[in-house]
């Protein structure tokens, strides 16, 4: 079998099953696991999948730049942002992540709401600038341009001094076994810092992130409290998270 044929088969299995197990593919094709692992490495290098222990998962389309991400699940992100905004109560201290869905959350906060929003996203802060009832605490640090958020030691130190009622987390990969992942190590560290400082964590889970994985681990799936998903998300996609004790809310 030619290399191109093997890779096409691997991608076909990935699309069909949502994962690839190297040992199973090697048996099906009567080839060595080393050959299949080499194919997986090359496919990962092309951005077509994310390697994990023993095989691979879909590469998250949420790994693109901000312009690209605005076009992915656009209507779903609006719905999730609107639903997330309804979870914010008057007087709360809310930690709000960066990303396109977080901007939608900020955009849909009730006009009369009085609360504090802590964010490391300049885009979110600008979105809230005209909201008279929201006090905005903007976390500074080194600007990570890919996601337009502050990262680094300065950001982490500022976050450690704040206690919040709820953290609305954005990630690029959400998988019941692999956990919550993102594409940059420093961004992952800031997300962990935000989660530690909040009494409750809500994950903003648009469709393209479910079942996908990115290189850097943020948290195990069972370590968050709630997931907000699009209304038409299949039950089989969310049942593994419910089994871990996560509350799943459809937007």
UniProtKB/TrEMBL annotation:
Keyword Ion transport part of the UniProt annotation: no
InterPro entries given in the database record: Carb_Metab_HTH_regulators (IPR050313), DeoR-like_C (IPR014036), DeoR_HTH (IPR001034), NagB/RpiA_transferase-like (IPR037171), Tscrpt_reg_HTH_DeoR_CS (IPR018356), WH-like_DNA-bd_sf (IPR036388), WH_DNA-bd_sf (IPR036390)
Domain called HTH deoR-type: residue spans: 3-58
GO molecular function terms listed in the Swiss-Prot or TrEMBL record: DNA binding; DNA-binding transcription factor activity
Keywords, alphabetical: DNA-binding, Repressor, Transcription, Transcription regulation
SMART domains assigned: DeoRC, HTH_DEOR
Domain of life assignment: Bacteria
Coiled-coil intervals: none
The UniProt record lists the keyword Repressor: yes
Protein name (record): DeoR family transcriptional regulator
């Amino acid at each position: 079998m030619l290399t191109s044929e093997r890779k096409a088969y691997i991608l076909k299995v990935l699309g069909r099953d949502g994962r690839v197990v190297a040992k199973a593919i090697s048996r099906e094709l009567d080839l060595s696991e080393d050959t299949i692992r080499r194919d997986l490495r090359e496919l990962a290098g092309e951005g077509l999948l994310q390697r994990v222990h023993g095989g691979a998962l879909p590469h998250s389309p949420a790994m693109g730049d901000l312009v690209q991400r605005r076009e992915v699940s656009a209507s779903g992100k609006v719905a999730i942002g609107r639903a997330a905004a309804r979870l914010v109560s008057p007087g709360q201290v809310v930690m709000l992540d960066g990303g396109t869905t977080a901007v939608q959350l900020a955009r849909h906060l009730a006009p009369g709401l009085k609360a504090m929003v802590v964010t490391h996203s300049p885009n979110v802060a600008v979105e809230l600038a005209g909201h008279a009832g929201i006090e905005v605490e903007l976390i500074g640090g080194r600007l990570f341009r890919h996601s337009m958020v502050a990262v680094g030691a300065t950001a982490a130190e500022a976050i450690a001094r704040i206690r919040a009622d709820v953290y609305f987390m954005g990630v690029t990969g959400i998988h019941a076994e692999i956990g919550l992942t993102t594409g940059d190590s420093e961004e992952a560290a800031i997300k962990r810092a935000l989660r530690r400082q909040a009494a409750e964590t809500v994950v903003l889970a648009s469709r393209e992130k479910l079942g996908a994985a990115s290189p850097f681990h943020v948290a195990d799936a069972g370590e968050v409290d709630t997931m907000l998903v699009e209304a038409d998300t299949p039950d089989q996609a969310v049942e593994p998270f419910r089994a871990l004790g996560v509350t799943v809310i459809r937007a």
